[in-house]
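Entry type: protein chain
Record version: 2
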Amino acid sequence: MRYRKAPIHTSHRPKRREFIISSLTMGLAMSLSLPSTRADKVMPVVQENKGRVPKTSARADLLSLFLCGDVMAGRGIDQILPHPGNPILYERYMKSASGYVALAEDANGTLPKPVEYAYIWGEALAELESRQPDVRIINLETAVTRSDEVEAGKAVNYRMHPDNIGSISAAKIDCCALANNHVLDWGYAGLAETLAALKKANIKTAGAGLNIREARAPVILPVSGKGRVLVFSFGSETSGIPWSWGASENKPGVDLLRGFSAKTIRVIADVISREKRANDVVVMSIHWGGNWGYEVPAQHREFAHRLIDEAGVDIIHGHSSHHVKGIEVYRQKLILYGCGDFLNDYEGISGHESYRGDLALMYFAGIDPATNILADLCMVPMQIRRFRLNRASGNDALWLKDILNREGKKFGTWVESEADNMLMLR
């Protein structure tokens, strides 16, 4: 994210102020270093036409997946968890992660500190418990590390203390896509610790590794009686990933797309063909594009189609945009061009309000394991408030529905409201 400068006040608690955000990583507009005050007691959780989706309800025989956008559990959020890391930041204007806590409190009231690991997932946990998806996949957009090797020349750097990994485990996440523009924010040491922390927590990772072989290896998730899910994670320079972060035979990093060419498609198709068995469901998680704007570049759409046509991909799980984007069903395969942020510490930061970046969606996709086609997609609207996920209001759910219908029109998809403010793709 980029932010333009706002007035600096360091003599008192920061008020909610004007911040203007643009598309790639830059610092926030404020210089502040606040000590963290903590209670000894951990606070409890407050608890095209032929491509259209058929009108089906949830079925037990379907392979069910939970997908969401960017989960940024570092920086300000890390400071309210049981084991806050070093709050020091090297952003141009913000010098302490505690400043983000203060901004959120000015916007929405005092935050409990420390909170249980599950706190940040809020009411999303009840949805996950009720639906019991077979596979849970997120884009984890933070380093999990104590490293102080800040990435030079990068204005925003996210990290979460490894002892707070329970905040990811709390939602029983199966796989974290890591090919994004923040996993190396704290250097190669930070990446190595991130991989180790997730492995220790029995959370599988895709898209980053100590070499290209590790970064490109898929996560394989067997689902009893329904086959397997293969998750690949790739990142694009268009999302702000530095070219130097690309992994190689002897260098750690992320699996970086070398453009959207036919050659890239052939490379990916070859990788998938070596791993995919009959009826495996292949999820391609891609971090691409800027932070703001609904337009889906023609090259993204063509690339997604060719991944399905030529590489055997069944679901495109796209992310990077801070807000939801249009959805396409191509040859009965799901394409999420931009899932939007799912968790972040941006409360109290104003700018781009018309995109409603505080609203998020839980995507629950049902796949027919016999054919690998999309049977249904249910979306549960949420709102990020007080560093936790809460069910969105009826009006906010309708706003999301209108956005998805407006943006989906060009793709031949639309959304209908169902009970309890849920949204169904048609």
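Comment: The chain has a mean pLDDT of 89.
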